[in-house]
Specification:
four-stranded parallel beta sheet; about 230 residues; 8 strands; globular; alpha/beta
Amino acid sequence: MPKIAIINPNTTVVMTDSLRVTAGRVTPLGFELLVTQPTAGVASIEGFSDGIKASHALMELTNQIEADGWLVACADDTGVDALREICAGPVMGIGQAAMQAATLLSARYSILTPMQRSVAILENNARRYGLNASLQGVHALNLPVLAIEKNFDLIKQRARQILENDNSECLVLGCAGFTQFRKPLEDALGIPVIDGVQVGVHWLAGLINLGLKTSKHCTYNYPEQKTEVL
């Protein structure tokens, strides 16, 4: 049975448990799902330095697991390029998965992220992926990642404000911590709300079923073995 590994790149167990529940509900039949996290690194990823620390722990964990596809559960797409070098199967970040889905479902989309310091990271990623033409804005909730779980009303209020100001037709959830709120938000807002965790699971399943793997022709080839020069 093919296996999809979802890795929460931070060390917060509550977030990993939430991902396990949400992803488990949408995993296609015939697939095994592994949801895990590193035991070292950072409790949440908020900014570039957190991302660097988390990436190292993420790679160490990935090297210990066998899977057919990999989903990195951080909207910053932390460490995704590095994992594509060390994994044979497809590797996807929830940020890219969600943005790509938004461009297929709407002409104008916005992103909600927890902290202001993550805004530039997501904007840069959208430009890099070529998905910024229909992106109307990346907006912060101004709430730490670890405080998201208990603030649904604030999230809903901020989402409404963003959509009205941007005149957007779709909302991307820019943090794995939002995953449990996708359906309630969609019901409240009346537009597509995209969680990259759920989208990513299905897209990985599709790539695996098609037998597609990460290209090792050049950029994502396995890391070169280094010989120390004395």
